Amino acid sequence: MRAIRFHEYGPAEVLRLEEVPDPVAGPGEVLVRVEGAGISHVETQIRAGLMPGIALPLPFTPGFEVVGTVVATGPDTDPAWTGRRVLALTPGGGGYAELAAIPAGSLHPLPDGLDPHAGLALLSSGVAAVGAFAAGEVRPGETVLVEAAAGVAGGLLTQLAKHAGARVIAAARGSRKLAAAEDNGADAAVDYGLPGWGDAVREAAGGDVQVVFETVGGEIARTAFGLLATGTGRMVLYGTAGGTPPAFDVADVLQRGLTVRGFASVLLPPEEVAGLVGQVFEHAAAGRLRPVIGAVYPLAEAAAAHRAHDERTTIGKTVLTP
User: What PANTHER family does this protein's entry cite (predicted)?
Assistant: First the structure.
C-alpha cells in the first residue's frame, strides 16, 4: 500500500510517499480502509521534533485522526465491525496511508448523514471544544474571548458560546482568518498580530471579559490574562499552539480573584472521551456545531499540507485523502 512516512525529524519535506507492506489487524484491532486522515497541530510539532519526551520508532507514519471503513478484524475482535464506517483517534498514528490497523477500543461509528470529513474535524477538535467549554462554565450574557478563532476548535468554541447566549470576541491573525471567525458567529474579531490588540478587545467587549479560551501561549496569553474581569474571570487552557506555555503570577490570580483551568483529553479515561464524542455528535445533529473544512489534499501532497500548517495559512480542518 501507499503510506506517508518520515525517517528523520525536520521540516515538512521529510514526509515521503512510499510503498510499504499492508498492515495486519492484531489482537483487539481492526483494519480500516482509510477515506481521510486529519492533520493536527500536534502532528506537525511531532514531525518537526518539537515535542520533547516523545520518541517514535522511525520511520514513522503519522495520522492520529482517521475516517474509513473496517475491512477486517483481528483475533479477539468483534467481527460485527466489518463493513462499518468509523472514526478513530489512533494512539500509534498510521493514518496517513491507504490502510491502518487500529485498536477496536478507539473506534466510533460514523453517524448516519454526517460527512466523513466533517466527522474528522469534529472528532478531536470537537472533544477539545466541548471539554474546554464545559470547563469555562459560560453563562448567558457573558463576554468570551476565543483565541485562534479560525482554527477548528476555536470555531467550534465560538459556536458553542453563541448558542449559550454569550457575546464572543474572536482573536486571530490576518483578514482571512478574521472573516472566517465572523462566519462562525463571532460578534467581533480582533487581529492579535497587531499592536494594542488587547485594547481593541476591551473596546469591542465594552470592558473586561469573563472567559478566555487560551491555546496560543506566550505574549498572546499574557495579554489575554490581563483582560479577565476581576472576581469573575476564568481562563481555560487547552493547548499551546504558539509553542510557549503561558506563565502566570499566582499572586495575581489570587488578588484578582481569577480562575485558571486546564483541559486535556489525553488525560481522560476512554469512557469519558467516548462520552464527550457523543456530546459532540449530539451538538452537530442539532445544528449547534458546524465544522469548517479548510482544504483537502491528496496523500501524495502531505508535505504541502504540513507546510501550510507550519506557515499558519490554514483555516479550519485540513484533510488528506488516499
Answer: QUINONE OXIDOREDUCTASE PIG3-RELATED
Angle at 15 between CA 13 and CA 19, to 5 degrees: 135
Residue 87 forms part of a structural domain? yes
Q: From the CA atom positions of the chain, what is the Rg in Å?
A: 20
For 100-149, how does the pLDDT look when each residue is reduced to its tens digit (9 = 90+)? 999 999 999 999 999 999 999 999 899 999 999 999 999 999 999 999 99
C-beta of residue 99 within 8 angstroms of C-beta of residue 31:
yes
Model pTM above 0.85: yes
**Taking the mean position of all CA atoms in its chain, how far away is CA 262?**
15
| Residue 16 is assigned to a structural domain of this protein | yes
CATH number of the structural domain spanning residue 66: 3.90.180.10
Q: Which of 220, 248, 266 marks a domain boundary? A: 266
DSSP letter for 81, please: G
> Are 237 and 225 in contact, with CB atoms under 8 Å apart?
no
Residue range(s) defining the domain that contains residue 133: 124-266
Cis peptide preceding 109, ω within 30 of 0: no
Residues 6+ apart with CB under 8 A from 271: none
Q: Are residues 132 and 257 in the same domain?
A: yes
Kindly state whether residues 188 and 241 are assigned to the same domain: yes
Q: Which three cell numbers stand for residue 104?
A: 477496536
pLDDT in tens, 145-172: 999 999 999 999 999 999 999 999 999 9
Beta carbons within 8 Å of 266's beta carbon, 6+ residues apart:
none
Contacts of 151 (CB under 8 A, 6+ apart): 125, 215, 241, 315, 316
* CA 119 vs CA 23, 237, 280: distances in Å: 24, 24, 10
Classify residue 271: in a domain, yes or no: no
SS3 of 206-273: the string is: CCCECEEEECCEHHHHHHHHHCECCCCCEEEECCCCCCECCCCCHHHHHHHCCEEEECCHHHCCHHHH
315 found inside a domain: yes
